[in-house]
Specification:
mainly alpha, 69 residues, YjbJ_sf, 2 helices, CsbD family protein, CsbD
Length: 69
């Protein structure tokens, strides 16, 4: 996972938590929902980066297997 992508996902998640909390405190349902959406977006970005990392590892394992032969 690239550092920029990881930071972007964490920023979305943390910002979303802040928005959701601010929405609860101010009784602003729209801000609460927006915060939950931002958190979900951060989670999806994180999952996508994890999938890319896993695919890269599989590719590297396959390359290594053929190098040994």
């Amino acid at each position: 996972m690239g550092l920029d992508d990881k930071l972007d996902a964490k920023t979305d998640t943390a910002g979303g938590k802040l928005k959701e909390t601010a929405g609860k405190v101010t009784d602003n349902e729209r801000l609460e929902a927006e915060g939950r959406g931002d958190q979900a977006q951060g989670g999806l970005k994180d999952a996508a980066e994890d999938a890319k990392d896993a695919a890269r590892k599989v590719g590297d394992s396959i390359k290594d297997a053929f190098k040994k032969d």
